[in-house]
Amino acid sequence: MYNSKIVGLGKYLPDNIVTNKDLENKIDTSNEWIVERTGIKERRHIVKGDGNTTASMGAKAAKIALENANMSAYEIDLILFATLSPDYYMPGSGVFVQNILNIPTCPAMDIRNACSGFVYGVATADQFIKTGMYKNILVIGSETQSGAIDMTTRGRDIAVIFGDGAGAAVVSRNESKESGILSSHLHSQGEHVDSLVMKAPNTNKWVTEIVNENNPEDSSYYPYMNGKMVFKNAVLRFEEVINEGLIYNNLQTEDIDLLIPHQANLRISQFIQRKLNLRDDQVYNNIMRYGNTTAASIPIALTEAWEEGRLSEGNILVLAAFGAGFSWGSTIIKW
User: Fold this and answer.
1) Active site residue 3
2) Selection from 5, 10, 316 nearest residue 137 by Cα
3) Which tops the pLDDT comparison, 143 or 195?
4) pTM higher than the cut 0.85
C-alpha cells in the first residue's frame, strides 16, 4: 500500500475587506458584539464585477499549490472540489477548475460536506492514493458566501460570520513511510440537518418560484443556523474526533505540534484548546482576519501556517472540522 503526502499548498482571498465597522453601517450590530461572540474582526467578500467566483478562486489557490509543489497541472490525476457555494447548480465546480487550469481529461468530483468538506476531500484523496489508483490529487476548498447572506438585521447572526476565499493542497504518492497522512476519521449525524441549513432553492422550491412569489419575508433561501445547537455539538464532536485520531495512531495530546481546526468561531476553538489542554502555540487560528470561510477555512489556515514556518519536518499536524449535516472529521498528518 502506498502512502500519501501533502506536497504543495496555496490560498487566495478577495481584495475586498469588510470590517465589523462596515457591518455596523448596514445592520444593527457592533464590533464589540461580533468580537465577543465570534472573535471575528474582518472578513473578505467578493464584489460584483471583480471577476471572482467559487471556481476561479479555487483555481487561483490551486495554481499556487501546484507551483509550491513544483508540479505541472498536467500531472494531476484527480480534482476534488469541496464547496457549499458552487458556481452553478450543475455542473460541479471541479470541472470549471479543470478548464481554467487546462488540465486534461482527469476526473473531477465535487464534495458537498460544507465546513467538513476539505477534511473529507483529504481523506478521499488519501484513499485513492493508498489503493494505487491515482498518484497526484488536487484538493480544493473554495467558497463564495457573501452573495447568499441576508445582509439585514434579520440575518445578522449569519451575516457577521461568513467570508469568501479559497485554499488548495496537492496530495501525492509518497514512497517513504516516515511522513504523510497517517489516518482520517469521518462522521455524520443526519438527524440534525435542520440545525444548519439553506433550504432553497431545492427540488420543491426552484429559483423561478421564489422570484415569482417575490416574497421579501421568505428567508428560506438564506442560510439558517441554530447557534446554540451547533455550538453544543461542535465542541463535543471536535474533541471526540481529535481523540479518535490520536488513539488510532497511539498519540497523546502533548504529541500535537499544531492543531488547525475549522475556523467556525474563535470561542469554539478556544473551548477545544482548553479541553485538550493545548498551549497557544499548538493551535492555529485566523478567523479574526477572514471569518468563517467554510470548506476553504482549513486549507487557507494550513497554507498560512506553512508560510509562517509553523510546520517542520516530523511535526504532528491535526486537522479537524465540524459543520452542516451534521458532519465532522479529523486527519492526522506527520509533516
Assistant:
1) no
2) 5
3) 143
4) yes
